[in-house]
């Protein structure tokens, strides 16, 4: 499995997700922004990637990654990375 290609997808996908989540976090609070990053932000990331970088899916398909696999792995990585942040936010806020 080509990890470098996945992490490029992860960065590009979460670029859209992160922008939306940070703006939401400013308006609704840090905990809400973090939860939006894990839930609705994934939809925004998918929508942004589909709109601006749709042709790159051919590259990932040629490397053996399906769209479903990529989305599932991005969600799992986001969950792993954000869970400690959520625990800290719930403990101190």
Ordered list of secondary-structure elements with their pairings:
Blueprint: H1 3-28, H2 30-38, H3 40-52, H4 56-62, H5 67-92
Helix pairs in contact: 1-2, 1-3, 2-5
The description of the largest β-sheet is: none
Percentage beta strand: under 5%
Helix proportion of residues, in percent?
A: over 70%
Mean pLDDT: 94
Domain tally:
1
The Rg value, from CA coordinates, equals 14 Å
The SSE string, one letter per element, is HHHHH
Between the first and last Cα atoms, what is the distance in angstroms?
A: 40 Å
> Based on DSSP secondary structure assignment, what is the total number of beta strands?
0
Query: How many helical elements?
Result: 5
What is the approximate shape?
Answer: elongated
Core attributes:
mainly alpha; 93 residues; elongated; single chain
Give a structural overview:
The chain has 93 residues and is mainly alpha-helical. The protein has one domain. It is 87% helix and 0% strand. The protein has five helices and no strands. Helix 1 packs antiparallel against helix 2 (30-38) and helix 1 packs across helix 3 (40-52). The model has no long low-confidence stretch (mean pLDDT 94).
